[in-house]
Each structure stands twice: as C-alpha cells, then as structure tokens.
Amino acid sequence: MREKLGFLGILWLFLMFNSSFGRFVVEKNSLKVTSPESLKGVYECSIGNFGVPQYGGTLIGTVVYPKANQKACKTFSDFDLSFKSKPGGLPTFLLVDRGDCFFTLKAWNAQNAGAAAVLVADDRIEPLITMDTPEEESASADYLQKITIPSALVTKDFGGKIKKALSNGEMININLDWRESLPHPDECVEYEFWTNSNDECGPKCDSQIDFVKEFKGAAQILERKGYTQFIPHYITWYCPDAFILSKQCKSQCINHGRYCAPDPEQDFSTGYDGKDVVVQNLRQACLFKVANESGKPWVWWDYVTDFAIRCPMKEKKYTKECADQVIKSLGLDIKKIDECIGDTEADVENPVLKDEQDAQIGKGSRGDVTILPTLVINNRQYRGKLDKGAVLKAICSGFQETTEPAICLNGDMETNECLENNGGCWQDKTANITACKDTFRGRVCECPVVQGVKLVGDGYSHCEASGALRCEINNGGCWKDTRGSQTYSACIDDHSKGCKCPPGFKGDGVKTCEDVDECKEKTACQCADCKCKNTWGSFECGCSGNLLYIQEHDTCISKDVKSEVSWSFIWVIILGLAATGAAGYAVYKYRIQRYMDSEIRAIMAQYMPLDNQGEVPNNVIP
Ligand SMILES: *[C@@H]1O[C@H](CO)[C@@H](O)[C@H](O)[C@H]1NC(C)=O
Ligand SMILES: *[C@@H]1O[C@H](CO)[C@@H](O)[C@H](O)[C@H]1NC(C)=O
CA-to-CA distance for 563 and 377, rounded, in angstroms? Predict the structure, then answer.
C-alpha cells in the first residue's frame, strides 16, 4: 500500500511539475446580459467539462437564484422548488454557489429541478477555472453521463452583481453563446482524441470506450470524405532518473523508464502492469500510423472498438496475441506495426512515443492536455460530455459556415426548431414539403430537393420547382384545381419558369386563377340568337329556337340546314328526271320525225337524185 501510494505520488508530482511549466487553458464561452440596463454587457464564463455545451449555438434564459439550497448540493424537490419554465416563458438559468459538493452534483440537481443551464458563482476571487468531473469512482457517478444541460462558471464578482440585481426585483436575461467557442476557419476540421487503451479505470474508461463505439460511424464518414483530419494521441509519463531501476518503474515503464503509465488496477502485485498499457497504447498509435500511410486512417476506429470488445483486461485477453488477431482481421500489416513498436526492453527512444510526449505540451491556443480523455477540436480543448451528439455538434461548429457536411444536418443534430411554426420557413402543407431544416446551428430555411427536383427560392416566402419535371412537384408552385372530373393547372411542363393561368382563367397563376365569366366579359356567345351560360373554365352557348351554336364562328345557324339540303337534292333529282324524260321524249319525237323524213326521202330519192345521201344515219334507228 505504501509502495503504491508512493509511486502514484511521484507520478502525480510529475504531472504537477509538467503543468506548472505548461499552460492549462480554460475554454470559455461568452455570456451576454441583455437586461437589466445596469448589467448589460458581455461577461466571460468557463465551460464545464460535463453536460452538453451548445457548441455553435446560443441559449437564452432568465436567471433565478434559489431561495434555499443555494449551493445545489441537495435535490430541490426537498425544498419544493422547481425551475421548469412556464409555457411561453424563457428557460431558467439557475445561479448556484460554488462549494460543499461536486460541480457535477450541482448541475444534476439543477437539471432535475427543470433548469435549462446552471451558472456557478465562484466563491473566491480568482481567474476562471474549468469545472471538471470528480476523479473518484463513486457510487453515484452514473448520473454524470445523464447531465445534459450546459454549465458555466462565473466570477465571484459577476455572481454578486446578479444576486444584487435579483434582490432588487430586476429580471435578468442572459444569452449564452458558444458560437465562437471553437474556431471555424475552413472546410476541414482537425481534431485529436487523447485516449488510453486501458479499460479498467472505472466510469471514465467505460464512458471513453462507449464514446468511441458510438462515435465511430460518424468519425469514419467524416474522415473518408475528407471533412476531418483526425489523430489519436496517448499520454505517457517518464520515470525520473533516480527511479529507473526501481521495481515500480520497471513494471510501469518501457524503454528504460522513458514511457510509463500507471498500473491499471493500481496494484502492482496482480493483473496487468502499467507497461502493458503503454505497449497497447503504442500499438494503437503505430496502427494509426501504418493505417494512415496506407491511406485509411479511419481503420483506427475499427481497431480500437474491436480491441475493446475482443481483448478486454477483465477477460485476461489484453495481449499481443489478441491484438494481432484483430489487426489481421482488419487486413493490416502486422509486421509494419511490430517494426514501429520496436524493442520495448531496449534502452532507446521510440520515435512514435517521443512525438506523443512532445505533443502533450500545449501549442498555440490548445494548452497542455492534462485531462484524460480529452478531445481537441481545431486546436481547442473540447469541454463537455463525451457523447456522440455533443461531440458531433462541436466538430460541426468547427466548419466554416455553410461548408459543414451532411452529417451535421441529419437527425442526430436536430434542434427540432422546425416543429414549431415550421421554423418560420416556407412550406406547402398540402404537398407536405418544407424548406425548414434542423441543423446543429439551429434551423435553416432552404428550398428542398424533392424527388430529384430542386426547388428554388428564398426558402422563407417561396420555393418553386425548376426544370423539366417541375410540374410533378407541388405543381411547380402553381395554381391547380379540380372540380368534378375537370382539372386545370397553371403549370406548363416545359423548361420555362413561372405559372400561367390556362385559357378560361385569369390570375397570378400561383395562388389563384379565377374563372373568366365569358358571358359577362362579352368575349364569346355574342350573336343575337345566342344564350350564354358561364361554366368553370369555360362557357356554354345555346341558341334560341332550332338554331345551333358554332363556336369557331361564335354564331348560331339553323339546325334544319341538313334536311333542306336533302330536300332540294331530291327536287333536283325529280327535276332532273323530268328534264331527262322530256328530253327523251323530244329525242323520240325527233327520231320519229327523222325516221319519217328519211323514209320520205328514200321514197322521193327513187324519183330524183339527192345530194346529201351520205348523211343518212344508218345506225340511228335501232
Ligand atoms: C497521414 O498521412 C498523410 C498523407 O499520407 C500525411 O500528410 C499526414 O501527415 C499523416 N498524418 C499523421 C498523423 O501521420
Ligand atoms: C410529411 O412528411 C414527413 C416526412 O417527410 C412525415 O413524417 C409526415 O408524417 C408527413 N406528414 C403528412 C401530413 O403527410
């Protein structure tokens, strides 16, 4: 026991020593008081390392300081206090005092009492610190993962001002703003995950592995598509020279005390040693290096989750053999990875672990990494719960606006702002199409793509389909109506834009096309005998008496036209027959005459010569 504490003491000192030279950066967001006038302004607060800060977003609320339980170490229901906001009211930000219990317990109690965020007022005058989760493995630690409200530490001075204003009966409205908590310079987000292969360190290790499993899918999509550049990192310590040959350093360190990790069970006599952890960490770092060289850095996520599932310490499978099986199943080159690990007993530097130790020291805006696990996004340390939704939200807020990938806009990231009043965006209720899209930045109004047809418009007041199939979608945003079996549309299915009322209608073609009353407007059915009756989209024209309406000529003509024609035809035939008969008779008479004539002539010819003899038609008489 003494031995163990002694060694941990050294490690701890070491960490302290490192930190005193480095810099621990407190990640901040801004807190803006919008009322009262006397407090108006922007104040700094530090983001708690638990709960879900709304990276990329804002939260507006009104501050309440509880009458009792002001340190929030007990549940508020014991005091009959509730901070649930009333319908239509602003969410409640609960101001509580620092001290007496863990920050996390304060947040948990505030959340259970209905607060939307918790502001902890510092109890001493000092620069802001990061409120962290308790290191101890306590029985109640399971609530840590259930904290979903954001938390912020404010200075003692600012806390005092709020309390004073509240006691004067003033209403204090605050806008918590995380939009600038992470830099978002371009369309690629660089992030690092400082982790550990140790799976026996209690709730912290469990939640770390759960996070990796849960986040793997998103991480791989982002990496494959080139949206992110991810690097895993591992913290190691080194053994002070004086202790290199001690039993402790020998069991905790590799490469002659150069790279050490604490004993997983914190007991040197049983189970795995610290050096087993260092070697597995090194294997993971090497695997990433080899996978990255082969152009597939995202395989690291597969390896780490598979290793955690297949090779846990609990089942005594935390071994090279087990690790190699996983590596083999992922099709990676074991030889290259072994080369990268090198001889861990040798008194030499390992280039990979050397780089890891160098990377631990803060650079630029990042600060030293001292909390395990730690996520660093765009060179800033992420604060909050390690949870898929919360981390994705933070990564997404690291993209330059409008360059964020689709995964940032999918279901997991929804803010559900579209549910209320459709987020104020354009929608077509009958076609069930909306321009409202929930994103991690809040809702955006953007004309959607429906069945492959892109709608265009401002997304707020109008969206309309364009292109060849535009009338298929929401009728191209044009007017359309059906009555009975009649349907009229103002959309013309060609490549043109816009809407035009069909013939027989007038209007803008978008919202309305009104039937034209052709009768009243005197555009049709205007002949003297016409009787006009307007119908929807057209008109009916009747004619008085036996007349028929001919639309092309807008005129009435007699219905008997056809029979008159036939009667006159018959008359023509009768007359024709009569004429033929008469003619026949005339011919007959003529022929008789001619016959008689020729007979007489023949008789006479016997008596005297005739000069036109040849004329006698021999064939005339049948
Ligand atoms: C991963 O590979 C790319 C290209 O091969 C290289 O530019 C990058 O530095 C590598 N990253 C790490 C962390 O080794
Ligand atoms: C509208 O569409 C959404 C998904 O696109 C669906 O969940 C919802 O039930 C639809 N509503 C109606 C009224 O059809």
Answer: 95
